[in-house]
Amino acid sequence: ASPVTVADYGVQALIILLLRQKFPDYGFVAEEDSAYLRTAEGAANLKKIRNAVNDASGQGMYTDNDILEALDYGQGPGGPSGRHWVLDPIDGTKGFLRREQYAIALGLLDEGKVVLGVMGCPNLPVVPANKREPEPCETGCLFYAVRGQGTVQQSLHGADTHVCKVSEVSDPAWATFCESVEAAHSSHDLTANIAKTMGVTTAPLRMDSQCKYGVLARGEASIYMRFPRPGYLENIWDHAAGAIIIEEAGGTVTDQDGVPLDFSQGRKLNTKGIMASNGRLHPGVVAAVKEVTSKA
Questions:
Q1: Closest CA to 102 of 87, 117, 114, 88
Q2: Nearest-5° Cα angle at 194, 208 to 124
């Protein structure tokens, strides 16, 4: 299981508390709940979380009960009607603990469709690796996308923005593909076989969290594949923000059969595998997946 930190609870509570002030009628589908913090063991962490939320909000008025209620408000069912925020407060907790890649990912569902995505990636270099000079680069990126209005990347430290576009790579030999760091999250052997079948020659770019969606949206990579263990159902908060960020940058996100993801079914995605690409490469990815999995 992914470790849960004070940051996971604190970020979720803070975002829910602030968004409920502005959008009181919207539902919330988020990862964490308050069960552990209501135990004797969790009480010490609850105090830390309350202090962190009050410090970050600048309001200094939230109580323990406010924190607990906010966390539990995130246990909404989602579904095909109404508007629901979809939040992963710390996506890639192991990356966060390693001081590597993690993301704070927020999406908005309207009648079961993702219409907005915002993703903060505090440790992601602002300049893509394929455009970066050897010297150290500023880190900290914010990606945001609105359905029909494109995807934008902004530095977390300034106002500089630019429109994200997926890569124009059409030859798999030149394509870079992303996958999870943790082999438990996705089969590295399977993705290696698929990449070989497609003719991909570059080494995989492995990183934690939905940062992978961001690097694909800005053209740093061209393919992302995720194949979790059989029987595992994906959580919608692990993909909602990232999916619209890629799609609005011109890319494609589907299941392994090439079917668009359906976020209207509740807290889970009833899907087999997840694949994202720059669009041009997608038919080849789907074909390679079918070829490799049919032999498995």
A1: 88
A2: 20
CA distance 281 to 273: 17
Instruction: Tell me the pLDDT band of 57, cut-offs 50, 70 and 90.
Output: very high
Give the position of tokens 């390679």: 288
Catalytic residues: 8, 93
- For residue 212, the one-letter residue type is K
- Are the CB atoms for 182 and 94 separated by under 8 Å? yes
Dihedral over Cα of 17, 112, 225, 146: its sign: negative
pLDDT digits (tens, 9 = 90+) for 167-177: 999 999 999 98
Q: Which of 149, 160, 96, 87 is nearest to 118 (CA)?
A: 87
Cβ-based neighbour number of residue 129 at 10 Å: 12
Residue 128 is which amino acid?
P
Give residue 296's pLDDT band: very low, low, confident or very high (50, 70, 90): low
Question: CA-to-CA distance for 235 and 254, rounded, in angstroms?
Answer: 15
List, in sequence order, the alpha helices (H) in 83-151. 93-97
The total of other beta-carbon atoms located within 10 Å of residue 162's CB is: 11
